[in-house]
Amino acid sequence: MTIQEISPASVLASAYQRSVADYWNREKNPVNLRLGEVDGIYHHHYGVGDVDWSVLEGPEETRDERITAELHRLECAQAEVLLNHLGTVTPDDRLMDSGSGRGGGSLVANRRFGCHVDGVSISETQVAFANEQAEKHGVSDKVRFHLKNMLDTGFESGRFRAIWNNESTMYVDLSQLFPEYARMLRHGGRYVTITGCYNDTYGLPSRAVSEINAHYICDIHPRSSYFKEMAANRLVPAAVVDLTEATIPYWELRAQSPLATGIEKAFLTAYKDGSFQYLLIAADRV
Ligand code: GPP
Ligand code: MG
């Protein structure tokens, strides 16, 4: 283990990054923990797909449990959509989960492909939690989580077959992020992001988008900046999927859940007024 991996001060390059690390070190939202407890896969992203509204019916005593399981099912479906865009991955390949949270995405990638996964987070608490999960799932030989900064990981050039960000690009400047990915991806490697971005055709960030930024201490980028910065960094888009319609039902259900955090209305407003989009972008490193 390098010094960089064990010293938070050397990983956090700015006061902003320290404030983000502080948020995630303290974060214990039941909407994340209760969902993770369903099957031991802890995600930090939202869901896609049609809601089974029958979960609201049936015995009152188990209603909350049914909603929790349904929200988790939709978040797991979102992770599968991302994995579907990683291309061919063999058990010897290495993938990087950039902004790996409590580790759920890395575990499901390893489960599907049998590959090595390096998860990266600037939160010590998340890294420790995720490494415990890898132990519990018996895959710590192949899935490892590191206290590292995605803008400057220290990983060797050409290490990765694929890199993904599942809702974590809004914490970094893309003009700093993509050069680091172009360096770490091998030629023909795949980059995938699922992200919330603001819609250039709306203009600048709407009130609802600004509320989301304030809630998570992030900086949602315009859709155009993804393509501009990819083009500048040898990343050629291979697929773009607008998941906006597919994520709205998740937010409708979450708004009715006792696990709601208060940000649900802002997401629904932003998606419905056209100021915000939930997008998957897959790109090849050339
Ligand atoms: C979800 O994490 C993602 C983020 C916080 C980044 C912001 C994402 C956008 C698309 C704008 P989470 O699962 O920890 O959030 P919550 O606690 O609200 O479920
Ligand atoms: Mg969540």
Automatic annotation (TrEMBL):
Stretches assigned to the Methyltransferase domain: 96-189
GO process annotations (BP): methylation
Keyword Ribosomal protein applies: no
EC number: 2.1.1.255
SUPFAM superfamilies attached to this UniProt entry: S-adenosyl-L-methionine-dependent methyltransferases
Stated name of the protein: Geranyl diphosphate 2-C-methyltransferase
PANTHER family from the UniProt entry: GERANYL DIPHOSPHATE 2-C-METHYLTRANSFERASE, ZGC:194242
Entry-linked Pfam families: Methyltransf_25
One MF term in the entry's GO annotations: methyltransferase activity
Highest taxon, organism lineage: Bacteria
NCBIfam families, per the entry: GPPMT_Stmyces
